[in-house]
Amino acid sequence: MELKCCVFQCDQKFYSLNSYRTHLRIIHSFNKKYNDYYCTYENCRTSFKNAAGLLKHLNSQHQFPKDTESNALNNQTQIIDTPSEISVDNLANIHHTSKDYTNDPNEEIFLEDLEKNNMKIDLNSMFFNFLTKLHQKSSLSKSIIKDIYIHVKNEIVDPLCKITKCDENTKEIINNAYTNFDSQHKLEKYMNDKLLLTKGENITINFRTDTVFPNGSPIFGQIKDKICILPVSKIFASIFSQKNILEDTLSLMNNRIQNNFNIVDGEHWKIIKKKYSNDTILIPFELYFDDFEPDNALGSNSGTNKIAAYYVRFPTMPSHLLSSIEYVFEIMMHSSNLKSNEFTLCLQEIVKRFQELEEGIDVTINQKVKKVHFILMRILGDNLGLNEILGFTKSFNGRNFADSVKFLVKIL
Predict the structure, then answer these.
(1) Beta carbons within 10 angstroms of residue 76's beta carbon
(2) Left, alpha or beta for 272 (phi > 0: left; psi -120 to 50: alpha)?
(3) Nearest 5°: CA angle at 116, between 111 and 121?
(4) Within 10 A of 123 (CB to CB), how many other CB atoms are there?
(5) pLDDT of 121
(6) Above 60 in pLDDT, residue 4?
(7) ∠ at Cα 103 (102, 107), nearest 5°?
(8) Which SMART domains match (predicted)?
(9) 146: exposed, middle or buried (C-beta count within 10 Å: 0-12, 13-18, 19+)?
(10) For the residues of 394-410, what is the DSSP string, one character each?
(11) Is the Cβ–Cβ distance between 393 and 402 less than 8 Å?
(12) What is the rounded distance in angstroms from the CA atom of residue 202 to the CA atom of residue 367?
């Protein structure tokens, strides 16, 4: 007796209710509501609202066997041993229930391994989410976060394992998940492996001689002026390789809404587009400049650690992405470096990155590589920031000053 899976575009065949039930539970999420479950045995075509009704119908009306014979076992084992068909979302559906639906020893071992793997994924995710939420609290230092993490393990996790009488394998899985994040180095390694952390690159822009205090006494020494730049090419490629982001951005640029003006509606963007072929992918971005003081809540006027930050954003992205801070990228340097060095010296490394973006970078979308050109369109900031970055006077003693300055690139 042979039975074909009822799920659309699934061609798997089964010889027992146990193997069919296991397939529905793992591959197709047993509790997921499809449009219909229907009987495929000898063209019966009776429909059901859920998989349980279908299985009961096969058992009572068609007397479909619960167990498999040896030759069918081999076929079903070959079907089950395909982890590539199983998604992480479906693994959660087999907790504590998989052994009730199979009598095949090989199948039990396979499902047990799936349960262990799913438990590792869940525990890693829980410990990681707990730690990241602690790190989001600016009032908590790293040493306090480490103490909290240790106490949670010693005072909560370990006692719960004893109360619930976990077996040794479960305890080992929990301990391994805990030790994956018991140091800052391991946490950063996990985030790097999951592509959740991008470290900035410290670049020395100049060496200068100034007063230093190595032992508390002032002497003349060499000072390195550095700026920290995020790998913008890598970040841009990662962002636009996500699902539908590039497609939605291009759709908004090409299908303009009436009375909804954007930077791509201006004459300058039309001039830039003429320099490229019609099939070239162009994405505009903006550069915003401002100072902030991380150690002074009253402002950045007199802070010794004042930071000059350059922010990059994409004005043509969908609005729900523009409102998220995750899609604003920064390039930082100490404001003191701007005062002690020529402004062009500080900006030359940033300009190099922008030139690479303008020449185009590879973005992988649905396993296809596309070349995308990112064009700097606007420089934004307050009066002081714009005057500083554009080389104008930074004094505000005059009675009149320009709220906004609009010049063509050729004039500037």
Answers:
(1) 25
(2) alpha
(3) 120
(4) 19
(5) 79
(6) yes
(7) 65
(8) ZnF_C2H2
(9) middle
(10) ----SS---S-----TT
(11) no
(12) 32
**Residue for token digits 């900006």?**
347
DSSP assignment of 262-304: -GGGSHHHHHHHTTS-TT-EEEEEEEEEEEE-TT-TT-SSS-T
Picking from 171, 313, 318, the residue whose alpha carbon sits closest to that of residue 232 is 313
Tokens 């400049």 belong to 289
Helix (H) or strand (E) holding 332: strand 329-334
The span from the CA of 236 to the CA of 408, in Å, is 27
> What's the rounded mean pLDDT across residues 145-152?
88
Helix or strand run (H / E) with residue 380: strand 368-381
Annotate 130-180 with three-state secondary structure: HHHHHHCCCCCCHHHHHHHHHHHHHHHHHHHHHHCCCCHHHHHHHHHHHHC
Q: How far apart are CA 357 and CA 17, in angstroms?
A: 57
Residue 205 three-state SS: strand
Of 270, 305, 272, give the one whose Cα is nearest residue 291. Answer: 305
pLDDT band at 231 (very low <50, low <70, confident <90, very high): confident
Q: Do 315 and 322 form a contact (C-beta atoms < 8 A)?
A: yes
Q: Taking the alpha carbons of 399, 403, 407, 412 in that order, is the dihedral positive or negative?
A: positive
Predicted pLDDT of residue 301? 54
DSSP-derived letter for residue 256 is P
Q: Closest by alpha carbon to 201, among 223, 234, 158?
A: 234
